[in-house]
C-alpha cells in the first residue's frame, strides 16, 4: 500500500470547466468546482482559468475546503521563441506557485502543437523536431528546471501530450536521455500514453525513478478509434468522450499502481479526465474515481 503521509490525491478542474474548450462547463463556477472536489474526497487541485489570480484569495478559498494547489500547466515555446521570453513567463508562474505553496510545475512544449486546433486531426499531423531543435529543447528544459529547483524550490515535471513534439515513447525516451534528472522529471500521464498507442505500464516501469507527478486518466478505446478513423482533432475527441476517470475505461491500473508503489513514489496522483460536464457530471465522476482509487490503493 502507498504511504498516506507521502502520496496524496488530487483532481483537475478540467472536468468542471475546460480551459481549451470554454463552452464546456461555462456554467460551472470556481466555488462549485473546488467545493465538489472536496466533497468527493480530494485534497489537491491544479490551477484552472476560473481560479482567482490573487494567491491569497485563492489560498483562502482552498483552505476553507481542505484543498491545496499541487501543480500548474506551463506552456513552453523553447524551439520557437527566445529563451529569455520563455524564462520571463516561467518565472512569473513560479512566483505564483510559490505563493500558493505548490511544489511542482508541469511543462509542455507547445511549439507547433496541434492539440488545441479543432480543425487538425490529432493522428498523423504532429510536428517532428530535427536534431538542432532537440538540442535547443533539451538544453532549455534543463535551464528551466534548474531555475525552478534552485531559485523557487519547485520541481519541473515534463508533460508528454498528444499533438505535441513529445508525444510518443521514442520522443519521451530521447527527452529523458538528454535532460538532467536533477532538473527535469516526468509528469506521467496514463491517458496520453494509452491514447498514442503506448503501454502505460511499460512507461511506468521504465521511468519510475523520474516520475514526480502523476495524471490518472483513462480512455474509451472505441472513441479513440473513431478519432483515428475519422481524422478528428484532439478537442473533437474530448467532446466525444475519449477520456474518462480511472476505472471507467480500458487501462489496467492495478500493475501501474504496483510499480509506483514499489518505486516509493511520493507526491500527488491527480485525476485528470476532461469530458463534457453536461454528459459526465463532474461530481459523480469525481466520486467514482475516488472510490476506485481507494479500492485499488488504500489511499
Automatic annotation (TrEMBL):
UniProt domain Xylose isomerase-like TIM barrel: residue ranges: 37-294
Catalyses which reaction(s): scyllo-inosose = 3D-3,5/4-trihydroxycyclohexane-1,2-dione + H2O
GO biological processes: inositol catabolic process
Cofactor: glutathione; Co(2+); Mn(2+)
The entry's keywords: Cobalt, Lyase, Manganese
Transmembrane segments: none
One Pfam family recorded for the sequence: AP_endonuc_2
Family the entry assigns: Belongs to the IolE/MocC family.
Protein name as catalogued: Inosose dehydratase
Organism: Murimonas intestini
Record lineage: Bacteria, Bacillati, Bacillota, Clostridia, Lachnospirales
Gene: iolE
Amino acid at each position: 500500500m502507498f504511504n498516506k503521509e507521502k502520496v496524496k490525491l488530487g483532481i483537475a478542474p478540467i472536468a468542471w470547466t475546460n480551459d481549451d474548450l470554454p463552452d464546456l462547463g461555462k456554467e460551472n463556477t470556481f466555488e462549485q468546482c473546488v467545493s465538489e472536489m472536496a466533497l468527493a474526497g480530494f485534497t489537491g487541485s491544479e490551477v484552472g482559468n476560473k481560479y482567482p489570480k490573487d494567491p491569497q484569495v485563492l489560498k483562502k478559498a482552498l483552505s476553507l475546503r481542505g484543498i491545496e494547489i499541487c501543480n500548474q500547466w506551463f506552456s513552453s515555446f523553447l524551439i520557437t521563441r527566445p529563451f529569455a521570453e520563455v524564462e520571463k513567463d516561467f518565472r512569473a508562474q513560479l512566483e505564483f506557485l510559490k505563493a500558493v505553496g505548490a511544489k511542482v510545475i508541469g511543462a509542455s512544449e507547445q511549439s507547433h502543437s496541434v492539440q488545441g486546433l479543432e480543425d487538425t486531426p490529432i493522428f498523423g499531423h504532429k510536428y517532428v523536431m530535427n536534431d538542432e531543435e532537440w538540442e535547443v529543447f533539451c538544453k532549455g528544459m534543463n535551464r528551466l528546471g534548474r531555475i525552478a529547483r534552485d531559485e523557487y524550490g519547485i520541481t519541473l515535471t515534463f508533460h508528454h501530450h498528444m499533438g505535441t513534439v513529445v508525444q510518443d515513447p521514442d520522443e519521451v525516451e530521447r527527452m529523458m536521455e538528454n535532460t538532467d534528472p536533477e532538473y527535469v522529471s516526468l509528469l506521467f500521464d496514463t491517458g496520453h500514453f494509452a491514447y498514442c498507442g503506448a503501454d502505460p505500464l511499460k512507461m511506468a516501469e521504465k521511468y519510475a525513478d523520474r516520475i514526480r507527478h502523476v495524471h490518472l486518466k483513462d480512455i474509451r478505446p472505441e472513441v479513440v478509434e473513431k478519432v483515428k478513423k475519422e481524422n478528428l482533432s484532439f478537442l473533437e475527441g474530448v467532446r466525444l468522450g475519449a477520456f474518462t476517470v480511472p476505472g471507467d475505461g480500458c487501462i489496467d491500473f492495478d500493475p501501474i499502481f504496483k510499480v509506483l508503489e514499489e518505486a516509493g513514489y511520493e507526491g500527488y496522483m491527480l485525476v485528470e479526465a476532461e469530458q463534457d460536464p453536461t454528459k459526465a457530471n463532474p461530481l459523480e465522476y469525481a466520486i467514482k474515481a475516488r472510490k476506485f482509487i481507494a479500492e485499488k490503493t488504500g489511499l
